[in-house]
Amino acid sequence: MKWFSRLIGFVCRDNRSRREQAKERAFITALNNLQSLRVTPDGGMSIDPDEIREQVIESRHALKRFVR
């Protein structure tokens, strides 16, 4: 199985820049930290708006020194 994953990794290389890959990893990590994220069987997603609102307010408060 290890050789198969190496073969797939060789054939399907990710040609994006490291910066773009890091942004995607950070986004995925942020999504995984959401407690109310639900995925439906057909691939849709739903998130509790209150949780998003709380996180935005916390982020704004933490980064207040950068914004006037």
- Tell me the major beta sheet: 2 strands, antiparallel
Q: H/E element string?
A: HHEEH
- Percent helix, as a range, is 55-70%
Low-confidence segments, given as residue ranges, are none
The chain-level mean pLDDT equals 84
Strand content: 5-15%
- Report the structural category: mainly alpha
* Rg computed from alpha carbons, rounded to a whole number of angstroms: 18 Å
Sheet with the most strands: spatial strand order: 1-2
Oligomer: single chain
How many helices?
3
Shape: flat
Report the count of strand segments.
2
End-to-end Cα distance: 54 Å
Q: What number of domains?
A: 1
Q: What is the compact description of this entry?
A:
By secondary structure, this protein is mostly helical. Helices cover about 60% and strands about 5% of the residues. The chain is built from 3 helices and 2 strands, in the order ααββα.
Task: Give your account of this protein's structure.
The chain has helices at residues 2-11, 18-33, 49-62; strands spanning 38-39, 45-46. It has 68 residues and is mostly helical. It has one domain (2-66). A two-stranded antiparallel ribbon has the order 1-2. A hairpin with a 5-residue loop joins strand 1 and strand 2 (45-46). The longest helix has 16 residues, at 18-33. The chain starts with a helix and ends in a 6-residue tail after the last helix. The model has no long low-confidence stretch (mean pLDDT 84).
Task: Describe the secondary-structure layout.
Layout: H1 2-11, H2 18-33, E1 38-39, E2 45-46, H3 49-62
Antiparallel strand pairs: 1-2
